[in-house]
Structures are given as C-alpha cells and as structure tokens.
C-alpha cells in the first residue's frame, strides 16, 4: 500500500506526483514519466534476467533439472500509465491545495509595491484556458512576494480594475496601512489629469501613496537614441546616467573600504580610497553593502546634461570616430522627453529604501548586508523565470497558481 491519488481508472503514487513539483527549467510530465519508466524497466530486467537464468538451468540435461524444481517464467512487464494520466493525477492533487495557495496569497501585504506585466506566462496556457488571456500582471512587495495577480486580454484600466480594487479592499479589511510607494515601468505621470494608475489606485493615492518610475527602466529608454550597445562609450554613458540619479552613501562606502583594506593593511596602506574602490571593491559588494540615495531632480538634471553634452563631442566617439548617439537630434529629443520623469524617480523624503537582511563579516569587519526595496527589478526577474518554473511545456491555470505560491 502507498499514498495515492485516484483517477477514475487508476491510482498514481503520490511520490510520482511530487516529482513534478520541482520548479526547475524543463520539468515536464513526459520527463517524469520517462524517469519512472526507466526505473521500472531497470527493476524488471533484473527480475527477468534472474528468472530466465534459473529457467535455463532446469532444462532437461541441465544441472538443476535433477532436483525437478519448477521455476516460473517471469511475469510480463506491466505497462505504465501514460504521462497524460500522471499529469491528470497531478492536477487532481493540486486542486486540493488551491485553498492553501489562495490563503497564502491573500495574507501577503507590503509597504513598497511593484507592478509589472508580461506576455510570456500566458503563452504557456493550454486546455480550456488557451487563448483566453494575453497579459499576466502582478503586484509584488518589498520581500519579492506576490500580493496579487491577474490574467487579462489587454493591459487596460478596465481589465486591471478588479485586481487593484480587490487588493485595496483586502488591505483595508486586514487593517493594513496604505502602501507608501508603487513602482511601475510606465504610466507614472501625465501632462494633465490623473494617470491611469492614479485612477486604478485612487484610494491609496488619496491616502498618500506615491507612484514612482523604476530608475533602470528610465535609463534603459535612452537606448533608443544610441547607435549600438556594443559601442565603446555605451557603458560610460549608462553609468553616468545611473550616477546622475543615485549616489553611494559615504559612510557605507567608507566602512566597506575599511573592510576590504583589512585583508592586507600593510599592502593597502598606500592605496587611496578611490583606487581601492576602482581596483579592489567588486560591484557585487557595492551592491549589497553600500546603500544609494537619489540625488534630487535638479542635481540629476544637471549631471545628465553634462554627460550628454560631453558625449556629443569627441568624448562620445569610438576608435573609428563613430558617435555613440544616433544623432544630436535623437539624444536631445529623448532627453527632453525623459526630463518630466526626473521627479518620478526620487525616493520619498524620510523613507529608508533599504532593510538590513543580515550582518556579514568581511576580513573580520562587521558589514551589514542590505536589501534594496526600490524598483521593480525583483518582480521583472520573477516574471522572467516564472514560465520556466511552471511545469510542462504547456500548462493550465492551476499550474500557474501553484508556481506562484
Ligand atoms: Zn513619470
């Protein structure tokens, strides 16, 4: 006897079902079926070989025939249920967990929210759900948990309204405070009137929530005015933009430099702080141990203007004299269009955009390990990997929910 999931024809061992829970790339029921089949065949061949060997020994004239012992021929190999049936059993098993998944998602809240949409997840929908949706939109929180999600035919206010209203109602019912920020990759501001997002989240916006544009999305928009990202000045421009929006916290940076110096104080004694950062502090360490602050719209404007003016000239040419920008007009009109978002990227005053995840030690110096709450990066990363985490090449709604929970 073993714990099984019963379909109307056969029972499937729960341990087989669990194999499909593995959220790795390319985990499909066919793959699980092949693995189970291989284990069965291997097992059967061992029995088959053993009994066949015994049967040859009892042939007339063979040694053991004198004992007149009867050996039975091996039983025929039993056929495995199809991958289709295994998948059916998996979905039956998952249906039992829906309530748990639902409760998990419904009891997730947050202060710094992010909203992002993707088309990739929906392409995996098959069965009854096939072709019924185009977009997968989700709201995540600062802990990279999913607060809510919806599948829609289009990314319109009309379609997103039920999810947004539902989330706001849920926060209110649970006595949760209004979130402080919502990060988006578009629709942050408009010349006149409320934006689509402001009408979608009216209750929260009225309650003080601010809508912010994801900084890296803003930086990425400048790519449209650039000749090619393989240009030798591309990285310089990108880091100039990032540096124009955000600056490193001086105290955090000094602590990190001190920790890196502690590896070999005598050798590093003559190295300046600037060279320490340039040569010995990895970008990974900067990312995790040094917090960044937004510089304010005016300062960002000034710095971006300097970088663009500089790169329009000889500094923006590569070895063959080709300019980084497609044309002066292209970069100027892009810059002009993006200026209105300078305010949308600023951190709200008095708000800490980091939390200390843990304390780490670098060369014996205690250094906090920060997690950044800013931006929609984590949610985009999640959307990128979600299609691979959903088991099967094509899937149904239930698998999507299971993968999110
Ligand atoms: Zn904006």
Tag the structure with descriptive keywords.
single chain, 405 residues, alpha+beta, Nucleotidyltransferase, domain 5, 3 domains, five-stranded mixed β-sheet, two-stranded antiparallel ribbon, 17 helices, elongated, binds zinc ion
In short:
The protein is an alpha+beta fold. It has helices at residues 14-19, 29-57, 83-95, 98-106, 157-173, 196-200, 202-206, 215-221, 234-245, 250-261, 265-268, 273-280, 283-289, 297-312, 328-338, 377-389, 397-404; strands at 4-6, 11-13, 112-118, 135-140, 146-152, 181-184, 210-213, 246-248, 292-294, 354-362, 365-372.
3D architecture notes:
The chain is of the alpha+beta class. The chain has three domains: 4-96, no CATH class; 106-214 and 377-404, Nucleotidyltransferase, domain 5, CATH 3.30.420.10; 215-371, no CATH class. Helix content is 45%, strand content 14%. It has 17 helices and eleven strands. The chain has helices spanning 14-19, 29-57, 83-95, 98-106, 157-173, 196-200, 202-206, 215-221, 234-245, 250-261, 265-268, 273-280, 283-289, 297-312, 328-338, 377-389, 397-404, and strands at 4-6, 11-13, 112-118, 135-140, 146-152, 181-184, 210-213, 246-248, 292-294, 354-362, 365-372. Strands 5-4-3-6-7 form a five-stranded mixed β-sheet, with helices on both faces. β10 and β11 (365-372) form a beta hairpin. The protein is elongated, with a radius of gyration of 30 Å. The structure holds zinc ion. Zinc ion is lined by residues 188-189, 213, 341, 344.
